[in-house]
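Hey, quick one: can you model this chain's 3D structure?
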Amino acid sequence: MSDFREGVEWRVAAAAVDYDAAVAEMEARAAAVQEGSAPELVWLLEHPPLYTEGTSADPAELVDPRFPVHRTGRGGRYTYHGPGQRVGYLVLDLSRRGRDVRCFVHALEGWVIDALGRIGITGYRIPGKVGIWTEDGGAEAKIGAIGVRVKRWVTLHGFSVNIAPDLSHFQGIVPCGIADLGVTSAATLGIDSSLETFDTALALGFPTFLAELDGSGTKRLEGAA
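Sure thing. Here's the predicted structure for all 225 residues.
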């Protein structure tokens, strides 16, 4: 299913998408966006159970490779993707949205935090630890991961949020290299949310997310003037 929001193609996959096929499609779309022959894209999907190995991954953190392991060009370490987890891939042209990677990552985190708030979960950042965190039983736990790549000012990859995955699947890795804090999900926190409900929450906050990026670009241009 696909439509347009704020001039960006908004696509939701109806079935789980093979990881390598998704990366190939992202790469092709990013090249087309850079050339100006295709619109920007937000692609919401699920993957079959798998682990991804980011550019900073430590092999010692792959504890039990019970699922396929895919090397990827995104930043970060090992992470898990699987059913019940909403993955969002963003192919956005930062050459016209501020050329500020830090602003992009910060805005992306804020967008996910906003969407979690709309379904009743208080998410937040932890200084020095990438991702989205929340409180689970009095302890901090990770509910969302961020992993991006920027190629010729076009973004690839994006975020994943645990709605109702099998959390035992995370035991095969040290998620994102953080061993002292756990992972959680909306279902574990007692939030009865479907992927579709979370998608709606993302859609509601999407204009604000883009405005933050575009506002950064405007400020930089004004500063240069």
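One thing worth noting: The two ends are 42 Å apart (CA to CA).
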